[in-house]
Write a structure and sequence with these properties.
about 70% helix; mainly alpha; single chain; elongated; 7 helices
Length: about 160
């Protein structure tokens, strides 16, 4: 009679393939399913950005790509419901749910520069509650200046009609 240890050791030995061999299509499908990315909507990405930020990226995506994806999600959320975006940034900041306050400040800067009039007013009204010290206010101004500078640079390189 074979013992459990012998049975498992022979099963494990047979399951491993030599490194030089190609994987069969069924093994590749199993591996592909393990690494699949869970698609989330832009509201979930906004929450993830507000709580985690983008330090260092993730295993699957680099920091720059994650920052661009997060910014696109913020813009999509602002287009859908700007007041909800501002309220969510305020909640995360005040409740201390974020790893730092920078993502909430970034969201408020984008809301103040891209949002409609109501969103702009809400973002500026929420600013004293999110930017609670001089460093936070300086960081928010940095984000606003970066947005303004990028906008002016894009405007400067576009061809203009002469009147």
């Amino acid at each position: 009679m074979i013992t459990l240890t012998e049975h498992l050791s022979t099963r494990l030995r047979r399951a491993s393939a030599p490194q030089g061999e190609r994987l069969t299509s069924s093994a590749r499908n199993v591996e592909a399913k393990v690494g699949t990315r869970h698609e989330s909507d832009h509201w979930q990405r906004l929450d993830r950005f507000l709580t985690l930020g983008v330090p260092g990226g993730t295993y699957y995506i680099g920091e720059h790509e994650l920052a661009v994806d997060s910014a696109q999600s913020i813009i999509a959320c602002l287009a859908e419901d700007g007041l909800r975006v501002v309220q969510r940034a305020l909640e995360v900041s005040e409740d201390g749910m974020g790893s730092s306050n920078d993502p909430a400040l970034f969201v408020l800067a984008i809301a103040a520069s891209l949002g409609d009039d109501a969103t702009w007013a809400a973002a500026l009204a929420a600013l004293p509650r999110v930017a609670r010290n001089d460093e936070h206010l300086a960081r928010w101004l940095e984000y606003v200046n970066e947005r303004t500078t990028a906008h002016l640079q894009r405007f400067a390189v576009q061809p203009h009609e002469r009147s």
